[in-house]
Design goal:
five-stranded mixed β-sheet; alpha+beta; Cytochrome p450; globular; binds protoporphyrin IX containing FE; 14 strands
């Protein structure tokens, strides 16, 4: 009896499976995006996408064209590659595409309630406006020397750096810490930076563990680390709430850091921000800038170490702009550091930290110029990193060649259409092949801060060290939410005379 039940179930399962495979091969509906062939239902293309999304995208593009659907752990993801795909996603209408529905299950437990994707889009736009007002040139002028001081303190004591004349540094072990110290000292204020000397780093680590692909795919799994994530969020939020309370009670003159900026911000109807909104926004900012900037400085140092002649050109540029004696860095001179800016762009072109940008499709969407309709319920995916490394737009696209930017008009600047989604004018030009900071209503507001931060880090390294990359430029590790270099990431450094 039991045996016959099992064989019936097996036969039904097998018939279903054969139908599933046959459906993929023979039942192609021209009005739907082609589905990437996969042997395993539910899992779909998770393994190939997860190992190297760009290899996966390019192979699928060659086989299916710019628009295709793949299955990722039960979700239907429709990728739209190329500049048209970038534009389609970044400039999509609010009624058609939702970032909140794509990301909120991942971000809300980490950032907390009532901020970012836990609020309606118009509230996020107002929040972005408040944050942007705290990221001005006056702040940046003050931040540059703070970053330099933090770097000196950190590098003097950091393992694999230290006060010696030469050494081999482990970037993966040191750069994320240095990034968080420098970013927190500036953007987050003195109290938060002090917190990193006193246990904040462990909390940050626990919170960060909530930001993994597994949380994106299975947000409901009762993992022990999700408990640690929630505990870390509560303690960190409490820390910010105490800072806000103390500042209020002290009746000090408001300063210019981000907490002060948010404490002084008012919604359009005159309401101030609630304390927990400020606390959660600060956590969101800490997380948004950390991995992206840490990954980028590691890529920059590795790429430069593979072409030490560019390090010497950067050193010459420092002397040209700051004089032979190398007077201290100042933000107002950064506009003249052309090569540093090209280096940052080139690293972001080759290794944009965010490889997949997602939105949930809210109603059926016709793809212009084709018969294809992307069904509601799918996730739409754009990958600007594909166009950024495409020979069609960048000759010798795989080469690290910062000087290519010298002769290139920046598609993001100049006489292009601009639009205001509520947080200031941004370029509409999402059809650009180079969009490491995104575009449209969800465009990054941290770009200027990140550029100032990276410019200061690179300039300081160049002034003080020469280095070469040990073992070649690393491969990419796609196992976390951002594209990090695959360890070990080592450089052999030598202190300049
Ligand atoms: C190299 C550094 C960085 C890179 C490459 C980067 C990249 C991006 C990208 C691609 C987006 C768009 C995401 C989407 O459309 O789904 C974005 C949004 C955003 N980023 Fe950054 N980012 C960087 C640094 C920062 C920093 C330092 C901050 C904070 C100071 C920050 C805060 C934000 C915020 C608030 C958003 C808006 C999210 C939204 O509206 O949905 N980012 N970033």
């Amino acid at each position: 009896m039991v045996v016959s039940m099992v064989s019936i179930l097996l036969s039904v399962g097998l018939a279903w499976y054969v139908g599933y495979i046959a459906n993929q091969i023979f039942n192609r509906d021209p009005k739907r995006p082609p589905v990437v062939f996969h042997w395993f239902p539910f899992i779909g293309s998770a393994v190939t996408y997860g190992i190297d999304p760009y290899v996966f995208f390019r192979q699928c593009r060659a086989k299916y064209g710019d628009v295709f659907t793949f299955v990722l752990m039960g979700r239907k993801i429709t990728a739209y590659l190329g500049v048209k795909g970038n534009d389609f996603l970044f400039n999509g209408k609010l009624a058609d595409l939702s970032a909140e529905e794509a990301y909120s299950h991942l971000t809300t437990p980490v950032f907390g309630k009532d901020v970012v994707y836990d609020v309606p889009n118009h509230v996020l736009m107002e929040h972005k406006k408040f944050i942007k007002s705290g990221l001005g040139f006056d702040q940046f002028r003050a931040y540059v020397p703070l970053i330099v001081n933090e770097m000196h303190d950190f590098l003097a004591k950091a393992p694999t750096w230290g006060p010696g004349k030469s050494g081999v540094a482990d970037l993966l072990a040191t750069m994320p810490v240095m990034t968080i110290y420098t970013a927190s000292r500036t953007l987050q204020g003195e109290e938060v930076r002090a917190g990193f000397n006193a246990g904040f780093a462990d909390l940050y680590h626990d919170l960060d563990q909530g930001f993994t692909p597994i949380n994106f795919i299975f947000p409901w799994l009762p993992l022990p680390r999700n408990k640690r994530r929630d505990r870390a969020h509560n303690i960190m939020a409490e820390t910010y709430l105490n800072i806000i309370k103390k500042r209020r009670a002290a009746h000090e003159n408001p300063g210019t850091d981000m907490i002060w900026t948010l404490m002084g911000s008012r919604y359009r109807d005159g309401r101030p921000l609630k304390d927990h909104e400020i606390a959660n926004m600060m956590i969101a900012l800490l997380m948004a800038g950390q991995h992206t900037s840490a990954a980028t400085i590691m890529w920059i140092l590795s790429l430069l170490g593979s072409k030490p002649e560019v390090i010497e050109m950067l050193y010459e540029e420092q002397k040209r702009v700051f004089g032979k004696e190398l007077r201290p860095l100042d933000f107002d001179s950064y506009k003249d550091l052309h090569l540093v800016n090209y280096v940052i762009r080139e690293a972001l072109r080759l290794h944009p930290p965010i490889h997949s940008i997602m939105r949930k499709v809210k109603r059926n969407l016709a793809v212009p110029g084709t018969k294809i309709v992307i069904p509601a319920g799918h996730h739409l995916l754009a990958a600007p990193g594909v166009t950024a490394t495409d020979e069609e737009f960048f000759a010798h696209a795989k080469d690290f060649d910062p000087e290519r930017w010298n002769s290139r008009v920046n598609e993001d600047e100049g006489d292009v259409e601009r639009v205001d989604y509520g947080y200031g004018l941004v370029t509409k030009g999402a059809a650009s092949p180079f969009l490491p900071f995104g575009a449209g209503r969800h465009r990054c507001i941290g770009e200027q801060f990140a550029t100032m931060h990276l410019c200061t880090l690179v300039s300081t390294f160049v002034r003080e060290y020469k280095w070469t990359t040990v073992g070649g430029v690393p491969k990419v590790d796609y196992s976390s939410m951002v594209a990090l270099p695959l360890g070990p990431v080592k450089i052999a450094w030598e202190r300049r005379e």
